[in-house]
Amino acid sequence: MVAAGGGSIINTASSMATLPLGGLDGYAASKGGVAMLTKSMAAGCGPLGIRVNAIGPGYVDTPMNEIIFGNEDLAAAFAAGHADGNLQTSEEIGDLVVFLASDASRSLNGALITCDRGWTSFKSPV
């Protein structure tokens, strides 16, 4: 990236980096670590023309969350927990990653972009 004149690194944290749920201590701690690693990398890589940001998705329809999305009642309950009442798709997260990789996001460096359809906007840690 340095030889190319810069670039963009995009780390994957989680909405649990800022709003953990009980029982997922290791997961929340690791994602909080990714968020801080992102800031530290941004400070070190910025002078080299490399931006470093992180995404913090919530519950996305992926194999990791099959237990939620594979159960109609559970999926409906999780959808109701989002500000707009909808579940997230991997395509939505992909759109954000494309934006962060582009020059359109050149003013972002060291940011954790929480992209969880509002889940953490009005929830309390459990």
| Cα end-to-end separation | 41 Å
Shape: elongated
Number of helices: 4
Largest sheet: 3 strands, parallel
Number of DSSP E strands: 3
| Percentage of residues in helical conformation | 25-40%
List the helices and strands in order: EHEHHHE
Strand numbers in spatial order across the main sheet: 1-2-3
Q: What's the CATH H-level homologous superfamily?
A: NAD(P)-binding Rossmann-like Domain
Can you tell me the CATH topology?
Rossmann fold
Coarse structural class: alpha/beta
Q: Can you tell me about this structure?
A:
With 126 residues, the protein is α/β, with parallel strands linked by helices. It has a single domain, classed as NAD(P)-binding Rossmann-like Domain (Rossmann fold), CATH 3.40.50.720. Helices cover 37% and strands 14% of the residues. The chain has 4 helices and 3 strands, in the order βαβαααβ. It has helices at residues 25-45, 66-69, 72-80, 90-101; strands at 7-12, 50-57, 112-115. It has a 3-stranded parallel β-sheet, with helices on both faces. Helix 1 (25-45) links the parallel strand 1 (7-12) and strand 2 (50-57). Keywords: Oxidoreductase. InterPro entries: NAD(P)-bd_dom_sf, Sc_DH/Rdtase_CS, SDR_DHRS6-like, SDR_fam.
